[in-house]
Fold:
Amino acid sequence: MAVLSVDGVDISYSDQGAGDGVVLVHGFAASTQENWAKAGWASMLTRANRRVVAVDLRGHGQSTKLYDPAAYSLGLMANDVLAVVEHLQIKKPDLIGFSLGARVVLDLLRQRGDRFLLGVLCGVGDQLMNPRTDRDPEAFPAAMEAASVDQVTDDMARRFRLFAEAQGQDLKALAACTRGLNASGAGWTRETLASIKNETLVVAGSGDDLAGSPEALAKCFPNAKGKRIPGCGHMDCLTQPMFKAAVMDFLAGVPD
Structure:
């Protein structure tokens, strides 16, 4: 992994392969290693003659850990990714983001859609615009800060705490990240999404209880399609062959 300093924050990234560029952005509590290397995406894309750049978001993986919630927002994370793309002088790469990474990709397409070609949003759906209101916003940060996972009662937060622990992530940084994201974002609207002109794929598993409908979200874009993959949920979708095949077909321009 290489490192680029972005406004004093060290952003770690990998750069491998040759060909048309594709930039990968991982999900919350994950990393380049977990979502893209371990799950086989980096090797799959390099075999397809692509130059693959994957970025560790601030607070994650090998990038700088920050403990002030104000250091985290979609805008700051998008700026980190854009800085890596500019540093490497990659001409109009495709973007693939998973979960939190999909939200970062959306922010990049909203701000600098001219700088990128295709967008792929993995593990998201119409809950992006209509998030659940029955979930305590402190559930995730509290889960990360709990002395033991046994103290975490929220099932979804408990799953993410176990996931983060298994990778040796910095739990204090993840708590700050969650609070920062909660404080900085008012959510996405149809008007905002309608301004994104890039050809986009929205893809999620049929059992993904965090995403909602990818087809419904895709309808908010002027140039997008939604695809639901049977037999996978949120945490396992990136490892599923059918999920990978759907993304690869979209990148290659294979018609449905």
